[in-house]
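In the present case, backbone shapes were mapped to integers, as reproduced here:
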Amino acid sequence: MTQPTDIRRDHLATALCLAASGVPVLPLRAGKVPFGNCPTCAKNACGGRPNMKTPGPCTCPNPCHGWAAATTDPNVINSTPWTRAWRETAGVAYHPGGARLTVVDLDNHEAITWARANLSATRTMPTTRGEHWIYRGAMQSANAVRPGVDIKSTMAYARWLGPGTGTMTALPDAVRALTVKEPAPARPVAVTVPASSTSGVCPHRTPTYLDRGIAMAEQRITEAGEAVHATVYRTFLAVLSTHGRCGCLTETHTARLFTAAQAKGESPRHCTDAWTNARTRLGL
């Protein structure tokens, strides 16, 4: 009869084997959860950052900080603090993203049926209620990307359930797309256009110049990688400073700017406030 000590010894051997192949591992306690932070790291007192992409400056050898504790270092895995954990472990977990892998966790029959119809075949492992589909390539992790489907890759851990069956294939775009949120459609907003002082004719700019300027403004907003609020305001200010007094701007032009801003996540209210603040600053 297999004794608990033998099972735990097998877990350690499995962990060392995975680590040798470049897969970061950590022990799991009962309930499929990592060991809690040690007293030194309680309430993040060590300065570690377990919720970030790296565990931070913490050098504590204990297997705490969840996924961030996963390691391929056999000296750490065989260290005294970890040895105590292996004596109590109920299983082995690994950090898929650390091994440049992604696990699509299918939690029920309906999810498996969906995957077979929509995802490319790859290595699979049976779980208690469903299957793990494992692909080469890392991505952001996310839960409940669709009914019964979780994605475990970077900043997450997955249980090691065995080598599985089938040939591992490259992470398909269909999986990456599951974490991409569709931008909300731009809502039309009533925009106040400065009153014309020249019967709608710009005295110093041609219509072609104006259209090019609006297109450049749209591009500036669209390409903003950060500080979107500030970029939108500065862009509105630039457009109004050039065309806000000559009467060549129309609601069509301003609607294009608002649409570009809302596509970057700005709310209609933010757009209206930025437009109003820019007009106020220019005295329009």
In short: The chain has a mean pLDDT of 83.
